[in-house]
Write a structure and sequence with these properties.
- This protein is α/β, with parallel strands linked by helices.
- The chain has a 7-stranded mixed β-sheet, with helices on both faces. A 4-stranded parallel β-sheet has the order 12-11-13-14, sandwiched between helices.
- It has helices spanning 25-29, 33-38, 46-50, 107-110, 113-124, 149-161, 174-187, 198-203, 223-235, 251-263, 285-293, 305-317, 334-340, 368-379, 391-402, 409-417, and strands spanning 5-7, 57-59, 73-76, 94-100, 128-129, 135-136, 138-144, 167-171, 191-194, 216-219, 242-247, 270-273, 298-302, 324-328, 348-351, 420-423, 426-429, 450-451, 455-462, 469-478.
- The protein contains 16 helices and 20 strands.
- The chain has 2 domains: 5-221 and 357-451, Rossmann fold; 224-355 and 455-478, Response regulator (Rossmann fold), CATH 3.40.50.2300.
Length: 495
């Protein structure tokens, strides 16, 4: 709970990424809200499910501890690894707020966030030399949203009003980003975010092309990018193009059902939709019977990992063997793959980030491979796609360094709006012309407030190293700068 604050040094941190109060595998399989939150448009519904979900929050300091208000994770820059002028005058402390789901059903998205913040802190060292010529110490305040939309809004308000942060950052689904961004928009606080599709970020918050947001900016792929990858993925396996749809009756499932019907028929695919199922359903026999009757050879849908594992095992028991499949959320993370066992082989993996992506952090100095390797070394856990959240600290520090007047929020906003840089997750360029072409995929400025990041698609394969399963890149329609590692393979079935 929030009253239970534990203080310790970095070296005392639990080595496992999901230790202590983080989500267990059982909780992962029971995580009914994860699919609805991950790429869905809804921002409500998790509150009642997660009201009882809490967890200890920790205070982590690199060397110099800075007091903060409320329970939080504070990462304060200290030992300098940044090349700066020794004669630079010392300026005031700068604070970056970071809203992250450290506990609750979205904790798998937030699992790498402490690592990302720690790496940023180490790179910042004893400060950033900003446009005013002064070297400013920097504190990163990581606040646990507990995977709850109401808590996310409260966290944002606390960072703005109590912690007096200079910039707010947020990541991990609509259920975190939307309430945080809305609070910042209302308060006139610059906010940058990632890991929420631009469609949901814009339309889910009520913006229109002629009425953009004033204070909030996002970088992430869109639903159009996901489906461009899926179409390319499915076209590499000969099928009758009849797609079985199984979607949960929640925000994610409803959004998937709507998006699939929008994007797939023009590409020559025929959807066969089963009725939306209630999260936690144990018997999928009627849906499977429909798919078999219609002769579907492709499987697609939205399901949390537990429901998906249950459904897929029943497909095999009832001799429904689609040639290929693609799922939202269920198989993004190594834990979901491990829970399914060898049945995960050749299932798809949405790659919002990958250790083979050809990018480098300007702040930390690591390539994606180096960033992932260091994560595995520090946490003893396999890297996961949410390491893309490191983009927030590349971006935030670049913004602060370019801000003409750090005491003026409009000046900070001007720096956000003029961002043009490479990051650990690819290019950001808010100086580029807006490109709303329906045939364009991959990085582009899609609106006043959103720039899209690369999105690849992969398949799970038997691991060749320390980990039981690996994600192999098989498609790059929405990430043309990414190298494909192997061809798409059809699903295989054993008796």
């Amino acid at each position: 709970m929030l009253d239970n604050v534990r203080s310790h040094k970095i070296e005392d941190e639990e080595p496992a990424a999901f230790a202590d109060k983080r989500v267990t595998r059982r909780e992962f399989l029971k995580g009914a809200g994860i699919a609805g939150a991950a790429i869905g448009v809804g921002t409500t519904g998790l509150g009642s499910l997660l009201a009882a979900c809490g967890g200890e929050e920790t205070t982590t300091t690199a060397a110099v501890s800075t007091p903060t208000t409320g329970a939080a994770t504070s990462t304060t820059a200290a030992a300098s690894t940044t090349s700066v002028s020794a004669a630079a005058e010392i300026g005031r402390e700068l604070k970056i707020g970071f809203a992250s789901p450290q506990t609750g059903v979205l904790a798998f998205f937030g699992a790498p966030d402490k690592y990302c913040a720690d790496r940023a802190t180490e790179a910042i060292g004893d400060g950033l030399v900003c446009a005013d010529g002064k070297k400013h110490p920097v504190t990163i305040l990581t606040r646990d949203t507990q995977s709850d939309t109401n808590r996310a809004a409260q966290v944002a308000g606390d960072m703005i009003n109590n912690d007096k942060v200079d910039l707010v950052t947020a990541a991990s689904t609509s259920d975190v980003v939307v309430p945080v961004a809305d609070q910042c928009e209302a308060a006139g606080m610059p906010c940058i975010s990632t890991d929420i599709p631009w469609n949901n970020y814009i339309f889910g918050r009520g913006a229109t092309p002629d009425k953009p947001f004033a204070w909030t900016y996002n970088v992430f792929a869109g639903m159009d990018d996901f489906y461009a990858n899926y179409i390319d993925f499915w076209n590499q396996v000969p099928t009758n193009k009849k797609v079985a749809f199984l979607n949960s009756n929640d925000a994610m499932g409803q959004a998937t059902d709507m998006s699939a019907k929008q994007f797939l028929p023009p590409a020559g695919f025929t959807p066969v939709s089963a009725p939306l199922y209630n999260v936690g359903t144990e018997d999928f026999s009627s849906s499977i019977a429909l798919f078999k009757k219609e002769g579907c050879e492709i499987m697609h849908g939205s399901a949390n990992p537990g429901d998906f594992a249950n459904f897929w095992k029943q497909c095999l028991q009832q001799s429904f063997h689609p040639k290929t499949a693609a799922w939202f959320v269920a198989l993004m993370f190594p834990e979901g793959a491990a829970a399914l066992g060898d049945l995960v082989i050749n299932q798809n993996a949405d790659l919002i980030w990958h250790n083979a992506f050809p990018f480098k952090s300007p702040l930390v100095g690591d390539t994606c491979q180096q960033y992932a390797d260091e994560y595995e070394k520090r946490t003893n856990s396999k890297w996961n796609v949410a390491l893309c959240h490191g983009i927030l600290f590349d971006w935030a520090t670049d913004v602060l360094k370019r801000t003409a007047n750090l005491d003026d929020k409009n000046s900070v906003l001007d720096a956000v709006k003029s961002t043009k840089m490479e990051t650990i997750s690819g290019m950001i360029d808010f100086t580029a012309a807006i490109d709303t072409s329906t045939t364009a995929h991959g990085p582009r400025r899609i609106s006043e407030n959103c720039y899209t990041t690369p999105l690849a698609i992969g398949q799970w394969r038997k691991g060749t190293g320390k980990w039981p399963y690996d994600q192999v890149i098989v498609g790059n329609v929405a990430a043309p700068m990414v190298t494909i590692q192997d061809k798409v393979q059809p699903l295989s079935y054993t008796s």
